[in-house]
Amino acid sequence: MSPISRRGLLAGAAATALTAATAKAATAAPARTPTTTNPVWAAPFATADGFAGTNLLGQNGTTGGIGGPVVTVRDTEAFLDYCDRNEPYIIQVDGIMRFSSKHALRSNKTVIGLPGAEISGGGLDMYRRQNVIIRNLRFTGADDDAISVQQSSHHIWIDHCDLSGGQDGLIDIVRGADLITVSWCHFHDHSKTALLGHSDSNSGPDTGKLRTTFHHNYFDRTAQRHPRVRFGEPIHVYNNYFRDNALYGVASTENAGVLVEHNYFENVPFPIYSGYDESGPGRVVERNNVYVNSGAPETLGSVVEPRTYYSYTPDNAANLRTTVPAGVGVGRI
User: Fold this and answer.
1) Longest distance between any two alpha carbons in the chain, whole Å
2) Which of 269, 268, 300 lies closest to 286 in space, CA to CA?
3) Is 225 a catalytic residue?
4) Which residues form the Pectate lyase domain (predicted)?
5) Proportion of the chain in helix, strand, coil states, percent, rounded to 5
6) Which residues contact 81 (CB under 8 A, 6 or more apart)?
7) For 45-72, how does the pLDDT look when each residue is reduced to its tens digit (9 = 90+)?
8) pLDDT tens-digit profile of 162-192?
9) Cα torsion for 321, 327, 330, 333, to the nearest 10°?
10) Among 24, 95, 147, 257, which residue's beta carbon has the most beta carbons within 10 A?
11) Active site residue: 106, 138, 225, 230, which one?
12) 196: nearest Cα among 145, 143, 268
């Protein structure tokens, strides 16, 4: 079964809204250079699953820019302009967007890459935002975080992206951010992959938040943080392929609650930690994982079950070594 077929397509009102959005031209004033509409790539559109698909915090799942115009951007100025607008948009990225630092991505946006689309040198920052989808984009060489989700942002879906070679984190989810799904992404040629909870002193805003699902991602020779978690619960890590991670796989610290299940660990000396560096231990439960030429996992205590929030059916972990690399990254949707 292909990766896209594992998730249902939008139905009912959501599908109707997408059809209407893709059928009309962009009505907003164009950015500094012409921006055209190319509706073909935007549909069909799978729904977010995991925590991003939950109906919590006043948000009915994560639908991104559904209902807004579909625009195609071909230069950096136009891209950053549409990202910073308040209205809903489906932003199709055509080409390589080169910029530095992190730039704002506002609420109710879908950013989806056309073939060959890339963000080079900079990153996207969600600060008190909600209902954002980022798909089919390559992120390379960010001088800060490639994707930053912070300050109580929620309902963010990062799917089928390729992330590598940045100066800091590839994905940071911090400062009370919540209800995130990271799925079918390829992480490679980097050290600090995904951080949840930015410091040991931020227990107030982060405790019980940072609820994130990581599924069907390929952590490919990245060194650490797959993810590294403080305070958040539950963090759900399932059906991922961990390969040649030199420092460690998953780290639960500062009383976080992390469930690690149905994953494939290959050549990972420390697949699961409870506590790391100067951070105190976190609770972590592991089950039904495959360990090949890898160390023993550390576990501690109990964790709130993700099934409290959403339903899911894990794939057989033994097959992930084949299915995950075949399905992750750009060009698959």
Assistant:
1) 57
2) 300
3) yes
4) 66-271
5) 15, 35, 50
6) 31, 32
7) 578 999 999 999 999 999 999 999 999 9
8) 999 999 999 999 999 999 999 999 999 999 9
9) -170
10) 147
11) 225
12) 145
